[in-house]
Amino acid sequence: MKKHVVWLLVWLLVVVFSLSMVLEAPAEEKLAGQKITVIFPKHEMDTVGIFESQTREFEELTGIKVELIQAEWDKTADKIIAEMAAGGSAYDVIEFDNSWVAKFDKAGWLVPLDDYMPSGWKDGLTPGTASTFSIGSKLYGVPWNNDIRFFMYNKKMLDDAGISAPPKTYDELVDQSKILMDKGIAKYGIADFCAKGGLFNSVTPYIYSFGGTLFDEDGKPVFNTDPAVAEAIQFMVDALNVEKITDPASITYSQEDAMNIFVAGNTAFMPQGWPGIMAMANNEKVSNVVGQVAVAEWTLSKSPELQATMCLPEALSIPKTSKHKEAAWKYIEFITSKEKDKERGMTIGSLPLWTELYTDKDLIAKYPYWAQFGKQLVYAKGHPKLEWIEEWLYNLENETQAALNQEKTPQEALDDLLKDIEGNL
């Protein structure tokens, strides 16, 4: 009997020792062997697969396996929304777009990342990025793509035409475009992106930069009664159909198409260019405008006091349904770290997520035009915060396209837009 007791005590000691070793093991060791599924869109300028390579580096360092799913934004969004709405657990890390904040908050689909991150970890994020994805004091997404749009132009084209400075106003944009087109220097002034899935990111900054308001402080629609909104859309219509400074194929162009036209040297101006375009424009393998593109110190607008540009950050988040939340956080922490953020900046020209990287000597030496980015950043605005944002963007695109195709006047399109969304009000 005593022998049995002794062996039982020995066995208990072994179990206790084993458990203590597991509990004291580094988090990475405890998580090694887990597999997470990560889904977020392809970065517009990631032509070298840097997110893929950084993900594989994460696997090697942590032992956590990652299934990485990347596709175009709209296809990725469709998968995520469907999975979240169904309460599924297919994804451990997901794209969290700035336009989804109100919708995801109401649905309760995400876990607060503060529960996993070290104290003070988020403090160094660029102003506005953390607050965009915060609800109250809780952070629900860490930005992976600091997508802010900037006014860029082909300086060589302007120099060749004897134009001393890029346009500040839309009237000047029309005038300069016509000069460049008449002289055969540029085929068109601009190539806009008016295909579905991107048009809302084109029309919205026009509205803001004409001084237009979409919804009042109480969330009530005013877009069809604010004359500046119709004026903004009318400018888009006229630039395409009357002044003809806009590439006529713009009605079918995605954002990537418009960028490709610009770096091919067919257009002189890129009113809403994302940061990575500069790196692509200077890549001899894909660009015809190496050394020619510059960044303005201002954004285009109806008048200088109405400057505005789009702020479209995208974040990584953890669904409540994830079965591997700690491993998911480790991935987010690694991918959005200052080290990996700087690496992406040096490689593909993506705009940093962390404030201190804007004074990093290596990055500033490579991208001196970030000084101009800083001057435009203060005018960045996002889409309205609506729980039914998908319905808003869908109908905004439909009615704007109807105006661009001259099937309706801008005012008729806006009046119909109000009818389209009445069920959500």
The major sheet is characterized as: 5 strands, mixed
Q: So, the CATH homologous superfamily of the largest domain?
A: Periplasmic binding protein-like II
Q: Helix coverage percent of residues?
A: 40-55%
Could you tell me the number of beta strands?
Answer: 12
Q: CATH class of the largest domain, please?
A: Alpha Beta
Question: What percentage of amino acids are in beta strands?
Answer: 5-15%
The domain count comes to 2
Q: How does the helix and strand content classify structurally?
A: alpha/beta
What average pLDDT do the residues reach?
Answer: 91
Say what the CATH topology of the largest domain is.
D-Maltodextrin-Binding Protein, domain 2
Secondary-structure element order, as H and E? HHEHEHEHHEEEEHHHHHEHEEEHHHHEHH
> So what's the overall shape?
globular
Helix run count: 18
Numbering strands along the chain, what is their spatial order in the largest sheet?
2-1-3-11-6
Rg measurement, Å: 25 Å
CATH architectural name of the largest domain: 3-Layer(aba) Sandwich
* Regions with little confidence, pLDDT below 50 for 5+ residues: 8-26
Distance between the termini: 78 Å
